[in-house]
Amino acid sequence: MDSGGISDLDLDKYDADEQVKIICLGDSAVGKSKLMERFLMDGYRPQQLSTYALTLYKYTTTINGQTVLVDFWDTAGQERFRSMHPSYYHKAHACVMVFDVQRKITYKNLPNWYKELREYRPEIPCLVVANKIDADIKVTQKSFNFAKKQGLPFYFVSAADGTNVVKVFKDAIQMALSYKKNSSDFMDEVMRELENFELESKEESSDKEETQEGKLDSA
Amino acid sequence: MSIVAKRCGVRFIPPSIILIYENKNTSKTRKRVIPVRNFSQYSDCSRAAERLKHHVRHSVYLESVSLAQLERLHLILRDHLKGLSLEESLAARRASDPSDEDLNKLSDEELNRRKAQMDQLFERNRKHKDDPDFVYDLEVEFPENSVRETCSWDEEPSDEGF
Ligand SMILES: Nc1nc2c(ncn2[C@@H]2O[C@H](COP(=O)(O)OP(=O)(O)O)[C@@H](O)[C@H]2O)c(=O)[nH]1
Ligand SMILES: [Mg+2]
């Protein structure tokens, strides 16, 4: 996967006011795709972007009389590397982070996903979702401290019976919109700078090995 | 020929799958040794299992052996080639607590198989669009009361700074 192909995905379009990008994160088989499908029902057009191992769902809604175009990004297998390609996070406006209440390890992995998310997107809203509560409704009497510790909104949901699924995604869209209105996307600029820097330093180090250290110091 | 597999196992030297089967026509029980060729510690077990399952000469004997079992046997063979003891290999296969099973580590095929198992409960609990009591935006509040019990998953120290 190289970042040279990112333009295929037309990332710049997210700069327009009424378009947002929302990403899903979490371990394999926690139910990310089932949640997406439950929210979108029949009215979606999934787009498989195999080179990026992801599925893109386009969704249109109206909020306060304004049309909002939402791109939901769902992983299609890349989560098993416990890490996503940077383009997945690029210019995302909100994140839905999912674990499976039946499998502890998926909860224990949340900090790893959260850490990676914050490396790329330090500020965007992140919603923590406990899925599959239909399998064991008693879990809803317990508290899961990860979200509280991080100060993140938390939801008990079931993609199977539909509990709170629509609420999660509607909240995510609202939060994505208000994040977009109130942020200057400072981080994207920084990332672009970093990318440039990486290219330059690679070129230099390829022909002048010994001076590399001095150059990095002065940079 | 009608073959019913009775038991299926693995032999390390030379690497082979051993099949005990009954020939229904003759009611005789036999053993078949199927050599596993072109297989190394770097081989893809699910693909090797599939190759064997569809092998021109062996497939008829393996019809009643599941692909999952063939894949598991190849995993044990591969662990052996990597230098693991049989006990270590079996311990690794046996997910002692399914709640601790890391599905991120499975092959596509094994992951799909696990998802197919999960689908049984999913379908049982599923509310369909044409169910009379279907509600698209079903909201349920789970009030945060003070007696809420902390989930035991939070009790271990492996929080890595979070
Ligand atoms: N009981 C139950 N099972 C679920 C639920 N959501 C997903 N599943 C099961 O979990 C499996 C994996 O879901 P999937 O959406 O493919 O997970 P992903 O890998 O995170 O996209 C599915 O095959 C379902 O059988 C749920 O809310 N309740
Ligand atoms: Mg999926």
From TrEMBL, chain A:
Pfam families: Ras. One of its GO terms (cellular component) is cilium. InterPro entries: P-loop_NTPase, RabL2, Small_GTP-bd, Small_GTPase. Residues 198-219 are annotated as: Disordered. GO terms for molecular function: GTP binding; GTPase activity. GO terms for biological process: cilium assembly; microtubule-based movement. The keyword GTP-binding applies. Transmembrane segments: none annotated. The keyword Disulfide bond does not apply. Signal peptide: none annotated. Keywords: GTP-binding, Nucleotide-binding. Belongs to the small GTPase superfamily. Rab family. This is Rab-like protein 2A. The gene is LOC113079392.
Automatic annotation (TrEMBL), chain B:
InterPro entries: CEP19, Intein_C. Pfam families: CEP19. Its main location: cytoplasm. It is found in: Cytoplasm, Cytoskeleton, Cilium basal body; Cytoplasm, Cytoskeleton, Microtubule organizing center, Centrosome, Centriole; Cytoplasm, Cytoskeleton, Spindle pole. It comes from the Eukaryota. GO terms for cellular component: centriole; centrosome; ciliary basal body; spindle pole. The keyword Protein biosynthesis does not apply. Keywords: Cell projection, Cilium, Cilium biogenesis/degradation, Cytoplasm, Cytoskeleton. The keyword Translocase does not apply. One of its GO terms (biological process) is microtubule anchoring at centrosome. Belongs to the CEP19 family. This is Centrosomal protein of 19 kDa. The gene is LOC113075415.
